[in-house]
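Anyone up for a design puzzle?
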């Protein structure tokens, strides 16, 4: 029985650390806590920061004034029907805990995002979270393009963003993970990076 529990704990911990890497606190530098892909490769910093700054400013309005929707992500590894596809919405996402006996090792969960059109999208979050995007139908991982640290003067609510090219009408499973002592709950705003006429 002890051996079974130890194996279970190792598998659970691996799921979190595979996504989240070694970053453990919200206050760490972006380099130390940056989201990484499943292959554990650090994302390069985004080069087109002017465009992303505009996206972050627009997203910040929603992060501070809404509309808001609270959702609980599906447990990592299982099917997810938790949809975060409504545009111009700040999702308050709670990740399920990964526990071993009385210890909480971290948090991980999945949501579904279905873009209306093919474009590059930015997933902006209020804390540094490991992110992985997978085609829900084929289970193929989508390569993340780059990482953007949102400057405090641009938005005090959103901290970081990752970008990815997504096809319209395709269901994507977005996996998030965080290790203790990061919080289980965070804000998520998804916006097109090449969207014309961001209006508040």
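Challenge accepted. My sequence:
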């Amino acid at each position: 029985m002890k051996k079974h529990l130890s194996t279970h704990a190792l598998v659970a911990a691996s799921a979190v650390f595979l996504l989240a890497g070694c970053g453990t606190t919200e206050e760490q530098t972006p380099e130390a806590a940056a989201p990484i892909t499943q292959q554990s490769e650090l994302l390069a910093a985004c080069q087109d920061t002017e465009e992303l700054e505009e996206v972050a400013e627009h997203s910040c309005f929603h992060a501070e004034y809404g509309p808001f929707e609270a959702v609980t992500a599906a447990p990592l590894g299982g099917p997810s029907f938790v949809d975060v596809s409504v545009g111009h919405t700040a999702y308050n996402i709670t990740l399920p805990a990964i526990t071993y006996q009385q210890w909480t090792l971290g948090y991980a969960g999945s949501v579904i995002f279905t873009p209306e059109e093919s474009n590059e999208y930015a997933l902006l979050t209020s804390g540094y979270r490991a992110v992985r995007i997978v085609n829900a139908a084929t289970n193929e991982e989508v390569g993340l393009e780059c990482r953007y640290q949102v400057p405090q003067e641009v938005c005090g609510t959103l901290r970081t963003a990752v970008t990815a090219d997504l096809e319209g009408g395709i269901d994507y499973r977005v996996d998030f993970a965080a290790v203790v002592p990061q919080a289980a709950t965070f804000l998520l705003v998804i916006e097109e990076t090449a969207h014309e006429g961001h209006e508040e």
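A detail worth pointing out: The chain has three helices and twelve strands.
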